[in-house]
Amino acid sequence: MIERGKMMKEYRAVLKAVGLKATIQRLKLMEVIGHSGHITVDDMVVAVHESHPSISVATVYKNISQMLESGIVVEIPIVGQKSQYELKKMDHIHLICTDCGFVEDEQLDIAFDQKLNYAVTKDSFLITRSQINLYGLCYNCQTVVK
Amino acid sequence: MIERGKMMKEYRAVLKAVGLKATIQRLKLMEVIGHSGHITVDDMVVAVHESHPSISVATVYKNISQMLESGIVVEIPIVGQKSQYELKKMDHIHLICTDCGFVEDEQLDIAFDQKLNYAVTKDSFLITRSQINLYGLCYNCQTVVK
DNA sequence: ATATGTGCAAAGGGTTTGCAGATAT
DNA sequence: ATATCTGCAAACCCTTTGCACATAT
Predict the structure, then answer these.
(1) DSSP designation for A141
(2) Do B134 and A126 touch (CB under 8 A)?
(3) Is A66 exposed, middle or buried (0-12, 13-18, 19+ CB in 10 A)?
């Protein structure tokens, strides 16, 4: 589990732990993802280019795939939009604004967890990961006049 | 809200209600989606072709878009897979098997709803739709020896 | 009658792949 | 030293678009 805003050294350790070499491209990528919280591939490419203009799109894709496989990055599929990606952390809820697209994290509390376990028992379904997305309007988009 | 297994006449009414003409292509599509529960675009194309071989892929895409816009069909984005689509019904939970890909519906109960409302109040976030996907292993994939 | 919808084929855009040269360990 | 990684460009999807013909109302 990685927390937001970790520094390079810690990303190095994370990569090492899953057997991936700590290349500049990978470190920049993790920095970008960690800093943003959640981000699309396109935005990753743009952001990474700011500090390392020569990184290729292919490299970004290859690395995202590897990081997904190794579990250090997680996909957030979103209705009507491209998926976003985030560094692996505790399961939590996403509040997704259908107007501006902003994604906010919300802690998944204990009562919720119990609820999830209930579903397990009931259906003989072994849950390994929960993905809770609530779509609606963020505070800004509720109040701003269009 | 549409229930699974409605017949042609009812699909006609649904289409009329949102101002879409009741073409054979659309009726077949709704039938296929309704019958399957949840289905990918590719599988829709295959299934529709069985009863109506001349329907074009472009038509399927155009119709899915329109049905999403008009709200009679809903997208289910899934981690690491293509999105699936279902006819609009009450919000519910999806149990997604990460092994065989099977998607099962689970009723969203009242306690859950209260929880969602709590998030609203707390964050001034106006929820319009909830999407809860639980990933794991279905009963079959837990027991089958590989 | 006419506004919509369909099918075709071409265009578009995002993602993947293969390979030679570069890099981390 | 060498297994792994990067960048490039081509290949590959899946999805969208434009247009002439067909269809639902």
Answers:
(1) H
(2) no
(3) middle
The two tokens of residue A89 are: 């952390």
Residue nearest C16 (alpha carbon to C1'): A58
CATH topology of domain A90-145: Dna Ligase; domain 1 (3.30.1490)
Q: For the domain B4-76, what is the CATH code?
A: 1.10.10.10
Residues of chain B with pLDDT under 70: 1-6, 109-123, 144-146
Interface contact B135-A119, CB threshold 8 A: no
- Give me the average pLDDT of each 10-residue run along chain A (146 residues): 62 96 97 95 95 94 97 95 93 86 80 62 75 86 70
- Number of A:B CB contacts under 8 A? 116
Where exactly are the structural domains of chain B?
Answer: 4-76, 90-145
**Residue B120 with chain A: CB contacts under 8 Å:** 136
